Amino acid sequence: MKEPFILESSSEHSQYYNDSDFLHLGPGFSGFMDQYGGNAAITEEIAALGSQIWEYIFIDNIEGYPVNDSIFVHPVNSSSPCTDRHYPIVININPLHAFGDGKHPTTILCLRYLSEYLGRIDDEKRAGVKIIDVGTGTGILSILASKMGASLIEAIDLNAASMESAFENFTINDCRGISLRQADIASFDKNASYDMVLANLISDVIIPNLKHLTDLMKPDGIMIASGISAIRNEEVRKHFNLAGLEALDFAHLDGWYGYVLKLSRNQ
Description:
Structural class: alpha/beta
């Protein structure tokens, strides 16, 4: 039987951040923009993400939508029935106060890849797959992993609002086997290693944290990464190569890229 999810909060990371932290940049967001705000590619990517938030966010009474043939996402604030069609997995989500409701292309790409690669593992072995969800947001990726049978899931985020949102959504979906922790990837347990590292972030969080992210991967593990805009894609791919990562697969959707990565054998 899977254990109930656990909420942990480190005093080192207990500070509450403002709304700008929806990008998982923490209290350094203002300084980040001061330093890099003149970089057209960076500001364009952030502006694109910010402008799309409202395009993709749930509103009252909107119907849910399928991620693929197996997964349906249903907003809890909808007055519409879930769906007339049967889906093996239904994720009920309250997207308020945190990014990652599953409707934005970056999250859809991660959900699809997580479903595909976790689905390749035999049912009886999935419970033993170790997963870390970096920048969990609403917790939607961890919820999918839990519903697919994984029970060794760690979900981390800097944002206090994301912690609250993820906790609520884990409860709504009766999730088990998830440890929810307010933490910074740069100071996370360096002795931990995972079969799957989920990183639905943005390019300028992924690039400087690639060493931290790859350190979390088991030698035969994978990383599912998204939040990479078309204008930054080639740049980020170069950084993946420099970090010793090889692309097993990649896809793009509405101007955003998602990757499945493994460690190079030359590492």
